[in-house]
C-alpha cells in the first residue's frame, strides 16, 4: 500500500484545518496509507511565531528522511510562512528549492495544474527585474522537457505546450524587446527537435492563457511566476496544485498560503488540499 505523507505546514495557519477537512471529505482515493507530519500544538491559529515555524521545518525534514529511506512514496506539503522559516536560517526561497536541494536535484522546476490550466514556470521565486537575465535557452528547454514529461505521466501522449513570450505582444518582432528572438524562439526549436511534445510560440502572453483554457493547449510555459500564476489562480484557485518537477518522489502542495488572517475561523476551503492529495496518490 503506497504511503503518502502530509506535512501540516505552519500550524498557526490554515494547514491543519484544511488537511483535517480534506481527510474527512470522502473525496480521496482508497488504497493509500496517509501519515500526517507536524506538531499542531506548536502554533496558535493566526499567530505565527518561531515555534510554529520550527514545527513546520521539522515536518519537512522528517518528510525528506522518510522519502529518502524508502518508507514513503510521496509527500503533500501544507502551506508555510517563508519569512518565518528564513528567520530560523532556512536558506531557500520556498519549499520547491528546499526539496530540490534535499535530494541533490539540479534539474527541477515548478508547475501548477488545475481543472482548466497547467502552467510550467521558466523562473520561479525571483525578483521581476532579474527575470530577463535569468532566461536562457537551456533553462527554457529544461523546464519545457520536464513539463512534457509530467503531462505524459498523466496520460497525454503528445502534449501540446504553448511557450509564452516575455514582452508585450511577444516582443513585436523586436520592437518591445528581443528575448523572444534571442532566447525563446531558439529554445522552442530545440524542444521540437527533441520530439518530446509539440511546442509553439513565442505566444502573446495576454492571449495564450485564454487559448489554453479553451483546450487548444495542454499546458503553457510561462517565463516568470506571476505571468503564469495570475491566470491559473483566477480560473483554478480551488483546484490548483503545485508540483515540484524532477524529484525522485512526487511532491505536491495546495496553491494557497498560510492565510493567517482566517486561520481557526472555519473559513478556509480544503479543495486545493484535496486536489493535491489526489494528485500525489496518482503520481505515486
What would you say this structure looks like, in words?
This protein has 284 residues and is an alpha/beta fold. The protein has 10 helices and 10 strands. It has a 10-stranded mixed sheet, with helices on both faces. The N and C termini lie close together (10 Å). 49% of the residues are buried.
Q: Can you summarize this structure?
A:
The protein is of the alpha/beta class.
Blueprint (SSEs and pairs):
Elements (H helix, E strand, L loop, with lengths): L2 E5 L7 H9 L9 E5 L12 H20 L4 E4 L4 H5 L8 H8 L6 E5 L4 E4 L9 H4 L2 H17 L6 E5 L14 H16 L3 E6 L1 H9 L5 E4 L2 H12 L4 E5 L5 E4 L16 H13 L1
Parallel strand pairs: 1-2, 1-3, 3-10, 5-8, 6-7, 6-8
Antiparallel strand pairs: 4-5, 4-9, 9-10
Helix pairs in contact: 6-7
Amino acid at each position: 500500500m503506497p504511503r503518502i505523507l502530509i506535512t501540516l505546514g505552519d500550524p498557526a495557519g490554515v494547514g491543519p484545518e484544511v488537511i483535517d477537512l480534506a481527510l474527512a471529505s470522502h473525496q480521496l482515493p482508497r488504497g493509500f496509507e496517509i501519515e500526517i507530519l507536524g506538531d499542531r500544538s506548536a502554533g496558535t491559529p493566526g499567530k505565527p511565531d518561531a515555534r510554529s515555524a520550527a514545527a513546520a521545518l521539522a515536518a519537512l525534514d522528517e518528510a525528506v528522511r522518510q522519502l529518502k529511506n524508502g518508507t514513503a512514496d510521496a509527500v503533500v506539503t501544507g502551506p508555510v510562512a517563508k519569512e518565518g522559516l528564513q528567520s530560523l536560517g532556512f536558506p531557500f526561497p520556498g519549499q520547491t528549492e528546499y526539496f530540490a536541494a534535499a535530494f541533490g536535484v539540479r534539474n527541477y522546476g515548478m508547475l501548477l495544474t488545475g481543472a482548466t490550466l497547467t502552467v510550467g514556470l521558466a523562473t520561479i521565486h525571483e525578483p521581476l527585474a532579474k527575470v530577463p537575465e535569468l532566461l536562457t535557452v537551456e533553462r527554457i528547454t529544461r523546464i519545457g522537457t520536464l513539463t512534457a514529461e509530467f503531462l505524459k505521466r498523466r496520460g497525454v501522449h503528445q502534449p501540446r505546450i504553448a511557450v509564452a513570450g516575455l514582452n508585450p505582444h511577444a516582443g513585436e518582432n523586436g520592437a518591445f524587446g528581443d528575448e523572444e528572438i534571442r532566447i525563446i524562439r531558439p529554445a522552442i526549436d530545440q524542444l521540437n527537435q527533441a520530439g518530446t511534445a509539440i511546442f509553439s510560440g513565442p505566444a502573446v502572453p495576454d492571449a495564450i492563457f485564454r487559448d489554453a483554457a479553451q483546450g487548444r493547449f495542454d499546458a503553457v510555459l510561462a517565463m516568470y511566476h506571476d505571468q503564469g500564476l495570475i491566470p491559473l489562480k483566477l480560473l483554478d484557485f480551488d483546484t490548483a496544485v503545485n508540483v515540484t518537477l524532477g524529484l525522485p518522489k512526487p511532491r505536491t502542495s495546495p496553491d494557497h498560503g498560510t492565510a493567517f488572517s482566517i486561520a481557526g475561523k472555519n473559513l478556509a476551503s480544503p479543495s486545493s488540499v484535496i486536489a493535491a492529495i489526489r494528485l500525489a496518490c496518482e503520481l505515486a
